[in-house]
Amino acid sequence: MENENTVSALDQIKEKSAAGFVVHESGLSAEITEEERSMVGEIKGEKGVYFFDPNTMAPRYASIMVNLEEKNYLALAAETIRNDSRTYPRTTPLALFSESSFSFTQETVEIILRSFQDKPGFEDIEKCGASNGAMHLFSKKYLDPAQAEYLCEWDEVGRAENQ
Amino acid sequence: MSDERNTVLDTSMNRRDFLKLTGMSAVGVSALSWLLPGCTSNKEDVAVFETASGVLIHESPRCTGCLLCENACTGVNDGKSSQYLARVKVSSGLAYGSNGVRGEWWKTDGAMGNFRLDAELCRQCEQPACALACPENAIFEEPKVGAREIDPEKCVGCGTCERACPWGIPKIDPETNVATKCVLCHGYSACVSICPTGALHYVRVGMKRLGSTGNTSSPKKYNQ
Amino acid sequence: MAIQGGWAGKILRVNLTEGKISHEDTEKYKNYIGGMGFGYKVIWDEVLAGTKAYDEANKIVFGVGPLTGSGALCSGRTNITSLLASNPFHGVSDSHMGGHFAVELKYAGYNGIIIEGKSERPVWLRIEDDDVSIEDASLYWGHGTFKTITGVTAVMGGDSQVAAIGQAGENMVNLSVIRTGPSHSAGGHGGVMGSKNLKAIGVKGTGAVHINMENMEWYNLNKFTMSIIGANNQHVVPRTPQPWAEHDHPGSRWTAKKDLYWEKADPPIETGICTPEQTNKVGYRTMKAMLDLGANGPKYTVRMGGCASCPIRCHSHVNVPQLKNYGADPNVANTCMGFFGPFSVMFKGVNIEGEHKDDATVIARALGSHVADEYGVWCNYGQLSRDLKWTYERGILRRVIPAAEYNSIRWDLLKKGDPGFFEDFYRRIAMKEGELSRLGEGAYWIDRHWNLGEEYWTDKNNKLWTKIGYPVHHANESNGQVGALISSMFNRDAQCHTHQNFLGSGLPTKLQQDVAEELWGDRNAIDEPANYRPMSRGKARFEKWSIVRNVLHDSLTLCNWMWPLALSPLKERNYRGDTALEEKYFTAVTGEEMSEEELDLAAERIFTLHRALTVKQMGTVNMREEHDRLTGWQFDMDPDKEAFTAGTIKLDRDDFEKGLTMLYEEMGWDPQTGAPTRETLEKLQLKYVADELETLDLLPA
Ligand code: SF4
Ligand code: SF4
Ligand code: SF4
Ligand code: SF4
What we know:
The complex is a heterotrimer. Chain A has a 3-stranded antiparallel sheet. A 3-stranded antiparallel sheet of chain A has the order 4-6-5. Chain A has helices at 9-18, 34-39, 59-69, 73-87, 106-118, 145-161, and strands spanning 23-24, 41-45, 48-52, 92-93, 125-129, 135-139. By secondary structure, chain A is of the alpha+beta class. Helices cover 44% and strands 15% of the residues of chain A. By secondary structure, chain B is an alpha+beta fold. Chain B contains 5 helices and 7 strands; from the N terminus they run H-E-H-E-H-E-E-H-E-E-H-E. Residues 1-48 and 207-224 of chain B have low confidence and may be disordered. Chain C is an alpha+beta fold. Chain C has 3 domains: 10-204, Aldehyde ferredoxin oxidoreductase, N-terminal domain (Aldehyde Ferredoxin Oxidoreductase,  A, domain 1, 4-Layer Sandwich); 344-356 and 367-462, no CATH class; 481-695, Aldehyde Ferredoxin Oxidoreductase Protein, subunit A, domain 3 (Orthogonal Bundle), CATH 1.10.599. In chain C, helix 1 (35-46) crosses helix 21, helix 9 (337-343) crosses helix 10 (357-375) and helix 21 crosses helix 23. Chain C is globular and about 60 Å long. The termini of chain C are far apart. The relative contact order of chain C is 0.11. Chains in contact: A-C, B-C. The interface between A and C is large, with 34 and 37 residues. Strand 2 (80-81) of chain B pairs antiparallel with strand 14 of chain C. Residues 56, 72-73, 77, 87-88, 182-185, 189-191 of chain B line the site of one iron/sulfur cluster (SF4).
């Protein structure tokens, strides 16, 4: 029988997910049962396991949340850029990272940009610019630089002129 | 009276709407008796009308004038689509508000004015003028939801109900010559269900809270 | 009155020369579905080749279709068909408007209005169900659209709907609109109404459209559509990353998000995150003001709005108190080009003292939209302002405009960035004041008068698509040859959104290709953006399907800015929509069984009739050379890049010719000339068209 005073782990996960958050295993006030575990999504981060409700949260968004929780800003930015270049394909506006759900500070954004240049493992990530001055990023592993340049200009300027 | 509680009503009615809807001060409405001026009568037979289990309300600020509510109302109840017959009426004041064209129309309600849209809805009055006026006693209380409903067998299409209702809700269907009014879709409220901006609600009587401020926190700042 | 089977039963015919009002039985036109189809049929049967747009012999047809007024989602549009004066050979074309005029006309008992002849003095047409009369319009003549619409409504009652022209239409300015409601314009045919001295049409209907389906089944059909509908343009993913969404796209018009408000609502209303399951929030998904009016748009937004029976509210309704400084009503509603077209007239930028640049943008967009709407000037899909810029910057205006007139133009306001320039500019265009007003004749005629040279046409930045004088409207930037070929088929800018909505849905290219394979049997119909491959059969099928559905929608009438719902926001449906929905609605309303293919075939008939009308009006079968020719920049742009390499939308001349051939083949037209053949015409039950073309020697060999 369920104790009336404690909220089940499943309900806690559901509630958090509906509000747009993942739950770290340590954040659960009730033990998660095997059955409950089969009903939720989980992501293993560097600092433990995170749960989310796949009915209200997409795995990709959960992964963004885990990276934010763990302050893995650089990895998150790189993953986002590569995913955009590979999947849609499109370039990623630098401004995206200042908006929610990312909400990086200006300082963080600058550190990320520098790291893309200096640190190993990010050689595929490149910058491109639009005529309105906006900067975008893309992965040349998935996107041709000339195509990236077109897509960046289209996103910033062209689309609004072609309703 | 139903003792069901309304689920949290996510409304953004402002005070003006609220008072307009109820026709009385907010203090007096906690019981939601819907005893409205114009629906009162001294006749003896008023007692046969219990309060309906609920009524419809319309939030003007959320209404965008799509008229899907009117389409749904007549689609579900009449098997056709008509603005004239719809028992929820946004169309009548759509362009220039419920008073029609005025001199400085751009200052008045309606899509051609300040964009504010109102709806006329049946209040399911506790003492319904429509029913009290009907010479055929054709308007009765439907037992399930308590809506005031017209018996098509008894109705002779005289139009007295339409004239008696302070909001002109009943309409004679020109194709059948029978009057028709809001029956709350016998508990279904198609208009509420279809409204794409949640501007219509079915509010159960007995509900405690009306006029929440769920969506009224101050908006974000813009570049000044 | 009962409107059985979706068709209202009759078409109203108004002869303004004789002041005669009569009715046509719809039966004769049913093969052409409604709306656009009715329009072409009437023009084919009744307007002789060689007639000019403003001739008394020209006719103008306001058409609605079987779904108009039924309550089918997004079924509120009016299709207007007539000869188009901005077109060099006055070819047949359509303009459309949303709003509530169409449904009102249907409830009054009509599938359309055929207006013919010419009144001696200004009149307006009053339609109250069966009671139709021609009324004196001298009170409204010379006034703008808002005043006219209000005046007519005052006579007819608050629950009527009015379509009207402004001064531009009265003066037969080629680029003029017919307007209804606060924000709906049909661009191109205002002058035809003006030439007939018809200022406005007021309509009020108390009828109903009967549904030939069980009540709840019908209701559930609409609820199902509500479940697969997206945001404006059937964009099916949100604009920003959101918890519920597997995909997002910065191009999406699904702009709703946390902390985004209709700020001028009383009290302010938050769009919030709108998930696909929340069908009572569909109308919040498209918070268009942040796109239409820029970063500060939401600050001025009272609400969104749009057309009858549409849950997608794509028109921004804003209150901008600063407009009072310009003597204008602070309440302005419009959408997309209605804001952008006028705004780009201020091509030197906008600068208002004491206002932040984002507020100045809102003020200028709202004011421009209001002034253009009041005078009833059409932007020719943004070309009017480009023409102003092109001719101004090259000193052409100084050359062609007499000095006194030139010096009286408020260039000072333009240079300062003061939106007061709108009033000066639009008045001159609408009143045909002086030489500057030639800009209102449209690109082809401007060049004829001012001799702008080949560069005018071949300048990529001037965006002119063919020599017919209309611009890019989802052309080579939309899947290369697909948008390019679609854009070459009409007598004005292609108003086809089928392909554009599909490509702009926000879903990954690979997923779109999967759907392409299902729909057109070829995943190669879709390329990655700006990484195009040579022409393919799949692309030709995608083109044909896009046009056919566009024509179908304008005939039914459904909004092609939303329909078809080929894709959906639902992951559980693997983002598939339902391309059979139009057919389901058609059968539900009319009670006539028609398969998806049969309905498409009917639309193919309508589009082939459009082609035949063009052949007849131009007096040549050689559509390839005379009609479908591009201006050239499409092949010569990006000189350092080859066509079909990454990063360019450049086309290739040979490939384009091949593309034309393939599209002609798909349509069953002559692969050489692109003119309809007798065989195809007969297959489409257009034998009478073939016979007439044969007598004119206009059938391909
Ligand atoms: S369905 Fe809702 S938004 Fe549309 S007119 Fe009715 S109340 Fe207004
Ligand atoms: S029709 Fe009018 S009088 Fe009758 S119950 Fe409804 S609101 Fe009251
Ligand atoms: S129209 Fe029918 S319901 Fe109305 S008052 Fe007359 S008889 Fe009664
Ligand atoms: S509750 Fe039903 S009958 Fe009443 S207005 Fe709404 S749809 Fe019509």
